[in-house]
Amino acid sequence: MTDTAAEAGIGRPARAVVVGAGSIGARHRRVLADLGLRVRVVSRRSGFGDHGAVGEAVTSFDPGYVVIATETENHARALADLAASGFTGRVLVEKPILPEPGPVPVDGFEWIGIGYNLRFHPGVAALRSAIGMDRVLSAHARVGQYLHEWRPERDYRDTVTAGPAGGVLLELSHELDLLNWLVGPTDVLFGAAVHTGTLEIERDDLAVGVFCLPGGGLASFELNCIDRTPHRSLTMTTTKRTVGLDLLTGQLQVDGEVVYECSVARDESFAAMHRAALKGGQDVCSVAEAMTIVSQVQELRSGHVRVDAQ
User: Fold this and answer.
1) Torsion of CA 215, 220, 223, 224, to 10 degrees
2) 287-301 and 174-183 helices cross at what angle (nearest 10)?
3) 306 C-beta neighbours (distance < 10 Å), count
4) pLDDT (mean) for 108-112
5) Does the pLDDT value for residue 132 go beyond 70?
6) Greater confidence, 139 or 308?
7) Which of 103, 113, 277, 299 is least surrounded, with the fewest CB atoms within 10 Å of its CB?
8) Do β-strands 65-68 and 111-115 pair in parallel, antiparallel, or remain unpaired?
9) CA–CA distance, 297 with 291 (Å, rounded to integer)
10) Which of 100-104, 163-167, 241-245, 294-298 is predicted with the least confidence, judged by mean pLDDT?
11) Which of the four pLDDT bands, split at 50, 70 and 90, describes residue 13?
12) pLDDT of res. 7
């Protein structure tokens, strides 16, 4: 075990398996390797991984930690295969947990969490601290970026975002998780998800909604993949203050005054999430929390409208 892994208190999970060799799987592999773990990849595609099946990786490599980073619609099958292999260690599943509400095979694992890594953004931690125990009256989350720019090396029409398990409500569900985690649990009051006709994708490219907060306040959000200027922010008004976080710049304002700024490396929140998952799971999204988000997405899509391009 390397010093980095030892300092993280990793122990036996110093061997990790990443199931899935796409862009997000490659990112998890890189982050785990940088943390000092020995990592192998499972992929159905010849030449893209170290193993072709989960059972083979578990039997030959004996990992203590497994990351499920397949397409969302294959998460349940990957978990079932992992359980059938006899694996009993720690598991992290990429977000969203499922494309729609359904059973999740989680029995037999030491621990399982879901990869909503923005919980580990230092700006989010600063916002959470600034809110403290104050009652939140209003919260707003907004994120937008033109889909062509998400993965510029690929044709966006070939990405999971453009397919039946994609759309902004699932792909950008970090904001739903943050609202639920920071000021929830929330209940859907109303909302809509639309396909504007701007992009050649199968699901929603714009979604807005309003949630009820436990203390009687309201939370709203906008998620889109059509903004030509990237934007990602959280604004919350409590009984005592208004707190605003720009997630792209790492700047936090309280009542209009900048009180915190951070420069966040690309993989920093992923590394912090994996450290937490390996050491006990504190603040990592749970299966129950992740399933709440999937149910909320289904509610918001129930009145789905398609707006054809003129």
Assistant:
1) 180
2) 120
3) 11
4) 96
5) yes
6) 139
7) 103
8) unpaired
9) 10
10) 163-167
11) low
12) 45
What count of residues does the chain have? 310
Q: What pLDDT, on the 0 to 100 scale, is given for residue 10?
A: 54
Question: What gap in Å lies between CA 253 and CA 261, rounded to an integer?
Answer: 9
User: Is the Cβ–Cβ distance between 156 and 145 less than 8 Å?
Assistant: no
Kindly state the tokens that stand for 60. 């030959």
Residue written as token pair 């994609």: 166
Cα–Cα–Cα angle for 163, 167, 169, nearest 5°? 150
Looking at the chain, the domain(s) classified CATH 3.30.360.10 span 121-263+287-306
All CATH 3.40.50.720 domain ranges of the chain, comma separated, are 3-94
Instruction: Look at the domain 3-94 and name its fold.
Output: Rossmann fold (3.40.50)
pTM, two decimals, is 0.91
Please give the CATH number for the structural domain made up of 121-263+287-306.
Answer: 3.30.360.10
| Residue partners of 95: CB distance under 8 A and separation at least 6 | 114, 115, 116, 173, 174, 177, 285, 290
Those residues with Cβ within 8 angstroms of residue 70's Cβ, 6 or more apart along the chain or in another chain: 19, 20, 22, 25, 78, 94
